[in-house]
């Protein structure tokens, strides 16, 4: 089979497309012929050597995708050859064939395309647990979303609206401001503006009930934009490490700081299926829209990595074998 591989850490130029051995499946695995593969910043970090990679070169990135089951292990009874499945956390996905543990295989409804599934799952499941577990968004909540035009951000905006919240979004450019408004944000401010004061203004001096903080370096400003008794959910640091938080400030303001990580939530096959199918249901009902992805052939994976790192994209980037 063909795969996108690299032997050493570095820039996009270390990636190349070559023939390698197909994976062998175990008794509890299924072999999937990939139709669409999601590209994420985690793949960039692994290519650079910032994230741990198991095994020896050639390394294969990729953890998210969708395809058709070509064969099943001897213990697998619930999935049949020819069925359509997707996954969010299976390694070595940048290849024509991927061995998928059956517990991580998510059945795809006929109405959900491979492209939609590969665009949705990792970021959609993240937005789902953030709004259902880290902080349960309620009807009438005012929610501040960092990086609201990004992949997780656009899904957060839409899910918060589904749950009855008002969305204040933050982003870095006028183009991205319009992208977030287009998916339902009620107010959008740029990072170059005095956004903490803008949030106070549109909330009549109260502040947001919850802030979804994915930038890191803006953590203390997020607290300034949060109401007394409100919550900051820290789930990323795309803009740099956060400063330490003084617990006395939390006590004095009755504010809560909580963190979130998807892998503490996706602990079973049942969790994967229930959460994914709620996302699929919202798409089928027309409540949740996934923006049109930018598609690269898997053979041009280096170009896809360059495009992702340029931060010019507002939607998902997919690779197709």
Characterize the structure shown.
- This protein has 2 domains: 173 residues, Quinone Oxidoreductase, Chain A, domain 1 (Alpha-Beta Complex), CATH 3.90.180; 121 residues, NAD(P)-binding Rossmann-like Domain (Rossmann fold, 3-Layer(aba) Sandwich), CATH 3.40.50.
- It is 30% helix and 26% strand.
- It has 321 residues and is an alpha/beta fold.
- Helix 3 links the parallel strand 9 and strand 10.
- The chain contains 9 helices and 16 strands.
- Helix 2 packs across helix 3 and helix 2 crosses helix 8.
- The strands form 3 sheets. Strands 3, 5, 6, 7, 8, 15 and 16 form a 7-stranded mixed beta sheet that branches. A 6-stranded parallel beta sheet has the order 11-10-9-12-13-14, sandwiched between helices.
Short description:
The protein is of the alpha/beta class. The protein has helices at 41-48, 114-134, 151-162, 174-182, 195-202, 219-224, 247-253, 269-284, 301-309; strands at 2-6, 16-19, 29-39, 59-60, 64-72, 84-87, 97-101, 106-107, 142-145, 166-171, 187-190, 208-213, 226-234, 256-259, 294-297, 317-320. Helix 9 links the parallel strand 15 (294-297) and strand 16 (317-320).
